[in-house]
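Milestone M4 deliverable, item 7.
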Amino acid sequence: MKQTFTVSITREDDWFIARSPDVELASQGKTEEEALLNLREALELYCSPPAAGPAPVLRHIEVEIGAA
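Output delivered:
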């Protein structure tokens, strides 16, 4: 099955960043094509069913926001 995702590509220094706002997922590459290829792979992994195994351990963490 195939699905279409929206992708934005930006450049940050020497890297191209490919982001899919549909699932809030991003990847990077040295070229635009590499960034898209890496994002495609990340999307395929993200959308694949979970493998059978032990249940994950859930925890809460505290993060300082706005600290400079």
